[in-house]
Amino acid sequence: MNDAARTEAPEETLHRIASAARRVETPCGDGRMVWHLWGESGSALVLLHGGAGSWRHWVRTIEPFATRHRLLVPDLPGMGESADPPSPPSMAEIAAITARGIEQILGPSEPYDLAGFSFGASVGGHVALLHGARMRSLTLIGPGGLVQPRQPLRLERVRGKTGAELMEAHRTNLLRLMLADEASVDPLALAIQDWNASHARLDTPSLIAKRPLAESLPQLSIPVNAVWGERDQYAYWGLDERIAVIRELCPHAHIHVVPVAGHWLAYEDAPAFNAYLTDRLRHSAPSSP
To answer: What's the domain range around 227?
Structure first.
């Protein structure tokens, strides 16, 4: 976190980061898919957020990487400011909308890396099926849908709640679902959770339940990375099983676990996540002539 972010109110942090972006819209069903673009030079990096999320899931990734990459960070269909995908929604159609957006922004052939968090990891796998060798690498952060959960995650209802009661429900849900340490549930995390939850319309769990990564990963020959927080709430009762499934589906995948952190790794331990992603992007970069 930079010095400015330590003293800013959450709304100021989000406004400052958003105002540095260029907004682009691409087709999405009967409406538009909203993209935020940061960075003026360097290789292209696409960041796909998690379920019931928005570009805000990457709030602690954007500024460090925008100094050396051109970032393409959308609100995925059915979430944030983007329109809904055609009904009934499917992972293939959401990935196709996303891939067409990338093509509109980068052109038909420019290489890029993609990192996807949770639901975004599954979308990324299907985007890779469409874009093949032009994708330099695919990094999966807290990927889901690999095994059946041993313990269901029960969330507090937020509909109809306001004020302190609403923030307490968000705090509870962040600890049950996203963040391992109570100290990580700071005002910025609560503000992001509140905005994301109020703008989410897509039923992402039903799409993840179809195990889309089991379809995409065996078909990929590009470099694949998978990283989890050690206390990822989705994987806590079966992280070893998930790693085993990734190894089975994609034997060449590079796998890493960050100690202590929860599901929202890029927020809870941004230094460790940013260092890992930097290292993996370095491995995928073309060699100098």
So the answer is: 10-284
Burial class (CB in 10 A: 0-12, 13-18, 19+), 36: buried
Is the distance from CB of 83 to CB of 30 less than 8 angstroms? Answer: yes
Q: Which of 265, 281, 44, 33 is nearest to 143 (CA)?
A: 265
Confidence at residue 161, expressed as pLDDT on a 0 to 100 scale? 85
Token match 């992972």: residue?
91
Q: Does 5 map to a domain? A: no
The pTM assigned to this predicted structure is: 0.96
Model confidence at 132, pLDDT cuts 50, 70, 90, reads confident
- Whole-number Cα distances in Å, 198 to 80, 88, 185: 8, 21, 18
Number of helices (H), then strands (E), in the chain: 12, 8
**CATH number, position 91:** 3.40.50.1820
Supply the pLDDT for residue 154: 80
The alpha carbon of residue 214 and the mean position of all alpha carbons in its chain are separated, in whole angstroms, by 18
Nearest Cα neighbor of 142 from 273, 281, 52 is 273
Rounded distance between C-alpha atoms, residue 84 and residue 93, angstroms = 11
Question: CB under 8 Å, gap of 24 or more: what pairs does 180-188 form?
Answer: 180/229, 180/231, 180/233, 180/260, 180/261, 180/262, 180/268, 181/260, 181/262, 181/268, 184/262, 184/267, 184/268, 187/9, 187/10, 188/5, 188/10, 188/13, 188/14, 188/59
> Which pLDDT value is given to residue 286?
75
